[in-house]
Amino acid sequence: MPISEETTDIKVSRAAWLALAVLFFAEVIVAVSEIKVPSLLPDILAEFGLALTAGGVVLAITGFVALVFALPCGPIDKKLGPWLAGLIALVIISCGAVLGAVAGTFVLLMASRVVEGIGGVLVKVVVPGIVARWFPKDRQGLAMGILSTATPFGAALTFVLVPVISAASESWRGGWWAVAAFSAVAVAIWAFFLRVPSENEGPHSEEHRSGDMAIPESRGLLVALGTREVWYVSLVFLCFAIVALCIVNFYPTFLNQERGMPLPEANRLTAIAAFVMIPGGPLCGLLMDKIGFRKVMLVGFALLAMVITTAFRAQGIAVFAVMVLLGVVSSGIPVACLVAMSAIMDKPERVAMGMAVLTLTISLGYLVQPLLFSFLVDSTGWATAAYIVTPFCLIGAFFAALIHADRNN
Q: What is the four-CA torsion angle of 79, 83, 89, 94, rounded to 10 degrees?
């Protein structure tokens, strides 16, 4: 499917930047909600008497939820509108965090993760579509690059602050209460400061008035499902997630159990990648506006193969180097996928449908990866498990190469 790469002279309004700031904070909340589990996993395993494989189930449950709810979230976005859908999603996340904070059993903890997962997937589907409504196509690389830093920013906050909050409260539950409070603040900010442009506003208003953006609601999801490039981009992100999450989900536990590192220090080291991604995301977005997203994907997978094959053998300063390189890679591939999806689903109102397919595929990675990697670690050890997942870098590069329409090929 050819992707049009038009340039415009349309200026980005202050309202667009304000909207991006609100969306950024919402994505930070989703990241903190998800990543608080790996940051406190050893404490959770100890309280409930679980093995690492069971910990993988705790991590995977949100992936299962997203796998089930990803596709319905696209039509929900169109039915309710992105503003109301996003507001409801943040309320759901806050309620899920409260439920987890009071969970007295492992089953109730899992139920809370289901609730948080539903809110998280809805936010992920809604947000890119709002960005596409506010920003012209030739500025979406920068916008998506900035937005992509929300996840590493949330990860950095989580790995650094959540263990401290939990230690101060003498329980991992303190982290859950903190997420509930931050989510409530996000609800208020979304409600009072976010505005979604109408059809006659924003950089795409002329297309709306000419009728170019019209698409029947019932066909929107079918268009996304039937577009090959949508699936190629989704599989690229899936392969990235399967490999990168080995480190994001399990590195604090690895450093704690295998290297004897205190958990707060292990979390701080893991957060290095997130800190690198904060400036890296916008820089990669600007780069993609110049050279295209496919080239970034291909180089990213080559670097990711280097990261995963050395991460679980690294010691001393090498651990720091691994996390820096992971941050560089994670600045590129996810942003490239967001920009690619926005270009493929070339009308803002269709982006949510493309994101529903992307989120569905990513969710499969979030579901399978913790279960697969924790099983491999228990069966073969950390380093061997990392080698086994390395071929996904080659598979991801293959699907990236199939995306024929790219910026500035």
A: -150
Distances (CA, A) of 343 to 144, 404, 409: 12, 12, 14
The interaxial angle of helices 348-380 and 382-389, nearest 10 deg, is: 140
Longest dimension (CA), the chain: 64
Dump pLDDT digits (tens) for 264-321. 788 888 888 888 887 877 777 777 777 778 888 898 899 999 999 999 988 888 888 9
Residues 242, 365 contacting (CB under 8 angstroms) = yes
| pTM for this predicted structure | 0.68
Question: 186-199, pLDDT tens digit by residue?
Answer: 999 999 999 888 65
Tokens of 402: 């199939």
Fold for the domain defined by 14-198+220-401? Growth Hormone; Chain: A; (1.20.1250)
Residue 314, token pair as written in the block: 């690294």
Average confidence (pLDDT) over 33-62: 80
Estimate the crossing angle of helix 14-48 against helix 150-169, to 10 degrees: 40
Q: For residue 393, which of 309, 325, 301, 322 has the smallest C-alpha distance?
A: 301
